[in-house]
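Ticket closed. Logging final result for Lrp/AsnC family transcriptional regulator.
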Amino acid sequence: MQPLDGTDTRLLSAMAKDPRGTVVALAQKLGLSRNTVQARMAQLEKKHAFLSFERRINPVALGYPLTAFISVHVQQQKLASLAKELADIPEILEGFGLTGSADLLLRVVALDAEDLYRINGKILACDGVDRTDTALAMREMIPYRVQPLLGRRSEG
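Final structure:
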């Protein structure tokens, strides 16, 4: 991805502060023309600056109040096929390949502790998984955010 310029950063910051703002409102707020804002937004979309809308949906609203992080230790030669198999488990929201003692870190949601036990069993049943370690999220301390990075970019 190409680095963003000051106008892009200002536009993203304004969108983060008012995600429902119209193109016209953003243009007025930033002192830009509507066409400029639309063109910049199209460029930002092509640069993959926007995450999917799906990331804004709260799993709690879907009945999944429990969040856990599951570290997975795997047989390295089976990692690619394992990732596909894990993606078929709907309660796994995201997964990351890691350095260190664990190979994967999965963010998982569950209905309750019994459901988490079931999900962990499905993960353990996948071909190539040696073992898992589960950590229950007790409370979100720092919500997902990008605004501080946008502020930092506009300073420099």
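The mean pLDDT is 93. No further action required.
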